[in-house]
Amino acid sequence: MAKLFYGTTPEPITIDDRMLAHVKVVVATKLRRGESFTLSWTHGPDEPVGRSTVWLQPAIPLRFVFDSEQPESLDQDLLKRMANDANSSRGLSLDIEDAAVAAPAAPARRTSARSASSTRSLARAA
User: Fold this and answer.
1) What is the pLDDT of residues 74-120, one digit of tens each?
2) Are 18 and 72 spatial neighbours (Cβ–Cβ below 8 Å)?
């Protein structure tokens, strides 16, 4: 399991490596643009029952720690969905179906030039 450290809190947010790879791209893109937003998740099995939300902003330290040495492959459809969530008033939620990040994406389908362009910019942000 990968870990996301935010601010000076020593306790990390524990996330699947593949999911954190997607989160990293979305978060890096938003923060590079100077855009703040919320990140929410359901507590893990070894934590008290509940959910947490943090306000992500560029001035607060952020560190991504992955268990795997190799970068994960990214699912462009999932990246788009997560970017749309991060841009909404709801914010980015890690409570996305596990199946969405369990396996690498199928071969890309043809997309319009506009959506392909925005997807490429997300993938380059990693």
Assistant:
1) 999 999 999 999 999 999 999 865 434 545 544 444 444 444 444 44
2) yes
Written as one letter, the residue type at 40 is S
110/89 Cα distance (integer angstroms): 30
Buried b (16+ CB within 10 A) or exposed e, 67-86: eeeeebebbbebbbebbebb
**DSSP reduced 3-state for 126:** coil
User: What does residue 92 show for φ and ψ, rounded to 5 degrees?
Assistant: -80, 130
Helix or strand holding residue 3 (H, E): strand 2-6
- Is the pLDDT at 12 greater than 60? The verdict is yes
CA angle (55, 82, 112) in 5-degree steps: 140
Tokens of 66: 């992955």
Tokens for 40, please give them. 């929410």
